[in-house]
User: Fold this.
Amino acid sequence: MSKKKNGNVQLDLFEALSGKVAVDRERARADIVKKVDRCIRLLNEEWGMNIEMPELRFDLKGAHAGQVITEGSDALFPVLRFNLAVAIANWPDFLETTVPHEVAHLGVHAKWGRRPRVHGREWKATMATLGVPAKRCASDSSTTP
Ligand SMILES: [Zn+2]
Assistant:
């Protein structure tokens, strides 16, 4: 480890300790698309369903990390929105937890419709199927009914 006492070394150390990885917008987008696809394939295999890839938008701003919109659109083609700035600031945690979190909302809607509670047992079971701890994210703004 370097003994330099400038800000760069401190930043490197912070990044090493926090496990953060630098990623640019294009790479983040591409990785999120791949992750959504992998999660949906996994749910389809486990459930014997044919959930289709949703429309993905990277237009979410502010503190919200992700959002699923099912109301007002065809139930087969909901929209998943992600906040790229939040994704990059929280990489790779965002990829490993926030993306499956939102896909799980999508899966719950596809399998159980609008009856389940937003972070209820169906969502928790779906997170378990995806192999991700079912931790509610404070910046989640899902509108899944
Ligand atoms: Zn949520």
About this structure: The beta strands are 55-57, 66-69, 79-82.
